[in-house]
Write a structure and sequence with these properties.
Elements: H1 6-12, E1 19-20, H2 26-38, E2 48-53, H3 56-61, E3 77-84, H4 94-111, E4 115-120, H5 125-134, E5 141-152, E6 168-169, E7 171-175, H6 178-187
Antiparallel strand pairs: 1-5, 2-3, 3-5, 4-5, 6-7
Length: 191
């Protein structure tokens, strides 16, 4: 199994909407799940749960549950990221915990040459109910996101999205200009 370095995976990750139906082997699936479990969790809560969807009929039915899941008809795999609200220790930060696990799955997928698409479920009550019903989930389990996965039929590329107007330094509204601060501090240094 070869992989891309972390920064390349981060900078070139794209939302992929066209997949080959080539299957994803079991060791790769396990790597994706290990990445999900490696994500940080507030208060070290063990509330995240993952439903692996690899049945073709079930993948083909996902667009009926989510308006952005049409690419599931081509995807080889999907992972439904959930929170078990009855698990201990519990945390109020379970949406963030599930979001970072979702991101880890997607970055691991990119590192392994797979494409991914994040389909948000929580906090849409209608979407949550649709997934709970479709997958016979117990009432204490909350679906948070659906990640579609497969070998991409689109290219990965880097798009620099850095926006200097959205980054501040020490006070809200004060422009982040580290080179200016570095120059100023070097001028204060005695020779």
């Amino acid at each position: 199994m070869t992989s891309t370095d972390a920064l390349t995976a981060i900078f070139t990750r794209r939302s992929i909407r066209r997949f080959s139906r080539r299957p994803i082997d079991v060791p790769t699936q396990r790597t994706l799940l290990r990445a999900a479990f490696a994500a940080p969790a507030a208060e070290n809560a063990g509330t995240r749960r993952f439903l692996v969807i690899n049945d073709r009929d079930t993948l083909d039915a996902l667009p009926s549950l989510h308006p952005s899941a049409e690419p599931a008809r081509e995807a080889a795999l999907a992972v439904l990221v959930c929170c078990d609200t009855s698990a201990e220790p519990q945390t109020t930060f379970w949406p963030q915990d599930c979001a970072v696990a979702t991101q880890n799955i997607m970055l691991a997928a990119r590192a392994l040459g797979l494409g991914s698409l994040w389909c948000g479920i929580h906090p849409s009550e209608a979407r949550e109910k649709a997934f709970i019903s479709a997958f016979s989930m117990p009432g204490m389990v909350r679906p948070v996101s659906l990640v579609l996965l497969g070998y991409p039929l689109q290219s990965f590329f880097e798009a620099n999205r850095y926006d200097e107007h959205a980054v501040f330094s020490n006070l809200w509204g004060k422009a982040y200009r580290p080179e200016e601060e570095e120059d100023a501090s070097s001028q204060d240094m005695p020779l």
